User: What shape does this take?
Amino acid sequence: MNKRGIIFDMDGTLWDSAEGVAKAWTFVVNRDYDKNRIITTEEIQSVMGKTMDKLAEAIFPELPEKERMELMERCCMEENDYLRVHGGTLYPDLEKTLEKLQKNYHLYIVSNCQSGYIEAFLEYYGFAKYFEDIECFGNNGFGKGKNIRNVVERNKLTDAIYVGDIQGDYDATMEAGITFIHAAYGFGTIAQQTARISCFAELPKAAEEIFKE
Assistant: This one.
């Protein structure tokens, strides 16, 4: 019997948390490092999707690696706490579409984020009921391609799609050996020709066409 799954990226696919993340990071940076530094929403959006070590390098290139990662860890802890209380900006029709998808597919999340980030999203919106498994870089230090593959294998999926918005998501999906759908409303573009959706509500039809092939 076929077990079909849809695995989601977080940022630029399910929601946009950049404004809240920027506020949380600015608070920590002002307190612990530079009282005049402002982390902007645009700055956060430009690095979303990177693994946490690469993200830290992009935001704090002037710091030695050890100090950079320690500051990053404190920023991420504050970020999780902030998002657990305030949430972010969901893309239109998200929950209605998740309800529809859940009737036909098993749903999962794989992100390059820190531990606790996906949980903050699920907790704030009460979305844990839609997702059977989650994985992230912060849990194991693995890149997105390996973590997508891990979720496919441990949930014994016979067919799977990954939905993401940036080139790195496409590359990781190819590494994992499954099908990709580009969330073209998100933060990035994809160099290759691939299935795409211009809004989240288009996903059920796009998934149906792919799984029918």
